[in-house]
Amino acid sequence: PQSSEKAKTIVHAFLKRSMPKMKDEAIQDMLTRKAVVLEHYHKKKTKQKRKKTKGFTAKQRRELRLFEIEPEQQRYAIFLPLHELWKQYIRDLCHGLKPDAQPHMIQSKLLKADLHGAIVTVTKSKCPSYVGITGIILQEFKHIFKIITKEDKLKVVPKLNNVFSLELDGFISYIYGSKFLLRASERSAKKFKLKGTIDL
């Protein structure tokens, strides 16, 4: 029975390959008892660690002048289309500024809305030189607004100790800057009091 021996050799080799952790004696014992349970052998895969992409630091952003607006671009007329887009965005956000709309609901949505493109006016301030500044908000940071005026002048106005008014379709909203010291991205989760106070 040459074929019988050949079959044993093939089965033994197959079992050795399928179960590399088992010794020859154990495999032979399994063949003798004719009770073979094949095990699945997992090859351990080495996981490759993903490299996290790092953004620019604050110092690098300043050096690259990422947030600076070039003098030739500091023109009020350039940003009027941005204001028109902002007005449409607010109308969609508030489902249309209708006369019967509840003022406190519109106010709460405006306080959490993106203000880039809005026309604001400084109505009250501890520093008299800021009062009356009107223009389109080009950039909002945690502590300041950058506003372009009709005279094509870029004004940096601090939020602290200033009250801003914002008018759209006859609805006037007031922003108390001292309560507004947040980045634009952080305001969506902030709960605002509808009645603010400022020590002027």
UniProtKB/TrEMBL annotation:
Places the protein is found: Nucleus, Nucleolus
Record carries keyword Ribonucleoprotein: no
InterPro entries per UniProt: RNase_P/MRP_Rpp29-subunit (IPR016848), RNase_P/MRP_Rpp29_sf (IPR036980), Rof/RNase_P-like (IPR023534), Rpp29/RNP1 (IPR002730)
Swiss-Prot/TrEMBL GO biological process terms: rRNA processing; tRNA 5'-leader removal
Keyword ATP-binding found: no
One Pfam family here: RNase_P-MRP_p29
SMART domains from the UniProt entry: POP4
Coiled coil: none
GO annotations of cellular component type: nucleolus; ribonuclease MRP complex; ribonuclease P complex
Key words, A-Z: Nucleus, Phosphoprotein, tRNA processing
Matches recorded under SUPFAM superfamilies: Rof/RNase P subunit-like
Organism superkingdom: Eukaryota
One Gene Ontology molecular-function label: ribonuclease P RNA binding
Quaternary context: Component of nuclear RNase P and RNase MRP ribonucleoproteins. RNase P consists of a catalytic RNA moiety and 10 different protein chains; POP1, POP4, POP5, POP7, RPP14, RPP21, RPP25, RPP30, RPP38 and RPP40. Within the RNase P complex, POP1, POP7 and RPP25 form the 'finger' subcomplex, POP5, RPP14, RPP40 and homodimeric RPP30 form the 'palm' subcomplex, and RPP21, POP4 and RPP38 form the 'wrist' subcomplex. All subunits of the RNase P complex interact with the catalytic RNA. Several subunits of RNase P are also part of the RNase MRP complex.
Job of this protein: Component of ribonuclease P, a ribonucleoprotein complex that generates mature tRNA molecules by cleaving their 5'-ends.
Family in the record: Belongs to the eukaryotic/archaeal RNase P protein component 1 family.
Name of the protein this chain belongs to: Ribonuclease P protein subunit p29
Organism of derivation: Vidua chalybeata (Village indigobird)
